[in-house]
Amino acid sequence: MRTRTLGSTGPAVSSIGLGCMGMSALYGTTDDAESTATIHAALDAGVNLLDTGDYYAMGLNELLIRDALRARPGSREQAVISVKFGALRDAAGGWAGYDGRPAAVKNFLAYSLNRLGTDHVDIYRLGRVDPAVPIEETVGAIAEEVQAGRVRHIGLSEVGADTLRRAASVAPICDLQIEYSLFSRGIEDEILPTARELGIGVTAYGVLSRGLLSGHWTRDRTPEAGDFRSLAPRFGAGNLDRNLDLVDALREVATSKGVTVAQAAIAWVLSRGEDIVPLVGARTRERLAESLGAGELALEAADLVAIEQAVPAKAVAGERYAARQMLDLDSER
Ligand SMILES: NC(=O)c1ccc[n+]([C@@H]2O[C@H](COP(=O)([O-])OP(=O)(O)OC[C@H]3O[C@@H](n4cnc5c(N)ncnc54)[C@H](OP(=O)(O)O)[C@@H]3O)[C@@H](O)[C@H]2O)c1
C-alpha cells in the first residue's frame, strides 16, 4: 500500500482510506460481521486511515471500529482514526443542526474516546460548520485537546475557502474532508487551490458518488426507506438515467483498460494530486478488494483525457444533497 501525507502537518496515511459510515448507517441494511471482516481486510492490506463520525448511527459506528480494532491486537497503534462530531440527533434518527461550541467539542470528544476505547483521536473535525459559533472558537477548542494529548491533528469537513483560512489562522489543519469525484468537482475552482496554498490535504469522500458512480448501481434499483440515496437528487427520477448514461460512457473507457468502473473512478481521484486521499465506502471485502485495485493503476495522460471526456466536469444531473442539506454546506456558499 502506498502512503500519502495529509497536508504539511498531518500523518502519513494509506493512499486510500476506508470510510466506515455505511457499515452502520445511511446505506440500508448493515452486517456487523462483514463490516468487521472488511475493516480487518483493510488493515491487512495496509489501509490505516479509518473514517467515522460520532453521529453515524449515534455512536454505533465508533463501537464497531473499537471492536474491530480490539480483535486485532496492535491495530489501534496502526490505525489513524478520523472522527467527525457536532451533528445533533434525536431518538427517531432525525438531524437537528450542529453544535461547535467549545464546551460541546470537549463533551463530544469525551464520549468518542470512551466509545472508541482509546486515549486519543488521530484526526478530529467538526462535521458541518455551526453557523452560531465562529470556526476560530471550535478549532481553538480542538487545539486545546491537541495540547492535552487527546487529539493528534485537526481536520475540517465541507468548508469553503474563507473558513479554511480562518481555521488555519488558529492552529495547523491537516486535512479538509470534502466530496470530490468525477461527478462532484466543485472544489477545483477555489477550495482546492486554497487548501494547497495553506498546506492542507484533502480526504475526498463520495469518490463513487455513494455508489452511483461505482458501475454496480442499476436503473431499476430502489434504495430502502431511510437510505440516504432515496432522497439524494442524483439518484432521483429524471436525473438517474442521465447519470447512469455517464457511467456507461465511463464503463467503455474502463473496459478498454481492463479495469472496473469503480477502479477508474477512484484512480481518477488519486491522479488529481498527491495531497488527495480518497476514502472509499466499501462495506464488504469484495468491494474493498475492488477499490484497493485502483491503487495499483497507473493511468496515463490519454486515459485521463478519455475518462474526462466520458464524464465531463459539469455533466452530472442533480445537486449532491437534497435542498435542505445543501444549506448546511459552508463549502457551497
Ligand atoms: N465529511 C462528510 O460530510 C462525509 C459525508 C459522507 C461520507 N463521509 C465519509 O466518507 C466515506 C465514504 O463516503 P461514501 O460511503 O458516501 O462514498 P462512496 O465510496 O462514494 O460510496 C460508497 C457506496 O458505494 C457502493 N460501492 C459500489 N462499489 C463499490 C466499491 N467497489 N467500493 C466501495 N463502495 C462501492 C457501496 O455500496 P454497497 O455497499 O451497497 O455495495 C457503498 O454504498 C464514508 O464512509 C464516511 O466515512 C464523509
From TrEMBL:
Residue ranges of domain NADP-dependent oxidoreductase in the record: 16-310
Keyword Oxidoreductase: yes
Record InterPro entries: Aldo-Keto_reductase, NAD(P)_OxRdtase_dom_sf, NADP_OxRdtase_dom
Pfam families: Aldo_ket_red
Keyword terms of this UniProt record: Oxidoreductase
Signal peptide: none
PANTHER family reported for this sequence: AFLATOXIN B1 ALDEHYDE REDUCTASE, ALDO-KETO REDUCTASE YAKC [NADP(+)]
Protein name: Aldo/keto reductase
